[in-house]
Specification:
single chain; Rossmann fold; D-amino Acid Aminotransferase, Chain A, domain 1; 3 domains; 15 helices
């Protein structure tokens, strides 16, 4: 390996994960951190650490100049952006490359093309990947856009062409609602992402959220099968699993092949995820977007395939070809990941930063806990509330759910309120046990079952 030192431009559990992958490849690691993260586990595990600014992300983790200065100071020859923050910032990828440093991910041009949902949709169509009926690009005049919405058929989803996380999205059920909601979505997207561009998609009722993990080196492209992420709250995933219980072998083959075709069409480098809506009534699937980074839920794919996705990303950034061929990729068993957040589900998921008490990490066969915790750690209130991801795998989905309940029962975080009780309750719910869920299933269930969400 020609790379020698990698800087991690992120924090939390993903920073810990990257440090471990890099060190196993023989690389030295540099952890950048804000003043709020001086005592973080990632800072303790890295070979070197550099403070880059105050707690507010805009002046630290989102400060491109500060990150590049840390790389220059420490002699890092690669930067891994993780997820969030600068991970899908095309200008950051360009700046890293211009500084003569390897960016662990795709080029700025690919991030730009696939990060813009309208241009990504165009690329998918050109690659022969099915897309949800909608506008061909960014909508212009509202009256003309409303006429197109009527042609598509209500309800339609008004979506920001930039960004994510559920922001800049509205659902219009009529022309009158469209004319009211479209300006709202544009304004929200402009404030959040600096881009008020919108496009339209037909709403697929009772859709499942299925995504395909891909790897590429610019010339060779493979898939690592799919994940299902249909259990969502406010369009944020909370429970992910692989493989999807909803797909037949034929649909799985066609879905994954379409993802590889799109990765090849854009000459993708690194790990990426291509997301789809799946209509399990018709069996049709539709491309919705591509994430040009590692995903929070990548461990479920690693669990069923045995592939270290972070290691592959780093090796590709080192200029090496993919070490895995498609015929070598298979999956075994079933894996589930749940996101343990510092939130109180019994109090409408109110953030609950605090001090980690008596930490007890689940163990045993088929249990993995990717986290950023240690006893006595003060969780900073400035960032995302994700503390860790509990991942289980077993021979069957039924056994994986049983194992999940056992592992959650072992998890101990002192007096911290977390989302763990939510997953215990879900693991005992008939629709979840049978896999009969969709992207709109969870929120009504939460309203009807708030009494089941108390505990630690």
């Amino acid at each position: 390996m020609s790379l020698t030192k990698i800087l991690i431009a992120n924090r939390g559990e993903i920073a810990v994960r990257i440090i471990r992958a890099a060190q196993e490849l023989g690389l030295k690691t540099v952890q950048v951190y804000s003043a709020a993260d001086e005592t973080s586990l990632a800072v303790q595990l890295a070979d070197e650490a550099v403070e880059i600014g105050p707690p507010v992300a805009k002046k630290s983790y989102l400060d491109v100049a500060a990150v590049l200065a840390a790389a220059d100071k420490t002699g890092a020859d690669a930067i891994h952006p993780g997820y969030g923050f600068l991970a899908e910032n095309a200008e950051f990828a360009d700046a890293v490359a211009a500084a003569g440093i390897s960016f662990v991910g795709p080029s700025g041009d690919v991030i730009r093309r696939m990060g813009d949902k309208a241009s990504a949709r165009k690329a998918a169509k050109e690659a022969g990947v099915p897309t949800v009926p909608g506008s061909d690009g960014v909508i212009g005049d509202l009256t003309e856009a409303c006429a197109l919405a009527q042609q598509i058929g209500f309800p339609v989803m008004i979506k920001a062409t930039a960004g994510g996380g559920g922001r800049g999205i509205r659902i219009a059920n009529s022309a009158e609602e469209f004319m009211t909601l479209a300006p709202q979505a544009s304004s929200e997207a402009s404030a959040a992402f600096g881009d008020g561009g919108l496009y339209l998609e037909k709403v697929i009722e009772r859709a499942r959220h299925i995504e395909v993990q891909i790897l590429g080196d610019g010339e060779n492209f493979i898939h690592c099968f799919e994940r299902e992420c249909s259990l969502q709250r406010r369009r944020q995933k909370v429970w992910e699993e692989a493989p999807s219980a909803a797909l037949t072998p034929d649909v799985r083959e066609r879905l994954c092949a379409s993802a590889v075709a799109l990765a090849a069409a854009v000459k993708y480098c690194g790990a990426g995820t291509i997301e789809y809506l799946y209509d399990d009534i018709s069996g049709d699937f539709y491309f919705i977007e591509m994430n040009t980074r590692i995903q929070v839920e990548h461990p479920v794919t690693e669990s069923i395939t045995g592939i270290d996705l972070l290691a592959e990303m780093i090796k590709v950034a080192d200029g090496q070809p993919l070490s895995i061929r498609q015929e070598d990729v298979s999956f075994r068993g079933h894996a589930i990941e749940v996101r343990i957040n510092a939130e109180d589900p019994a109090a409408n998921f109110m953030p609950f930063p605090g001090v980690v008490g008596d930490l007890r990490v689940p163990g045993g066969p088929g249990v993995r806990f990717d986290h950023m915790l240690y006893q006595g750690y003060q969780i900073p209130p400035f960032y995302d509330s994700l503390l860790g991801k509990l991942i289980v795998n077993a021979d069957t989905r039924e056994k994986a759910i049983i194992r999940l309940k056992r592992a959650i029962g072992e998890l101990g975080l002192g007096d911290l309120k977390t989302t763990a009780p939510l997953f215990t309750a879900l693991a005992e719910t008939p629709d979840v046990l049978s896999g009969s869920v969709h992207t709109k299933w969870l929120e009504p269930w939460l309203e009807a079952n708030s009494d089941k969400l108390s505990g630690h």
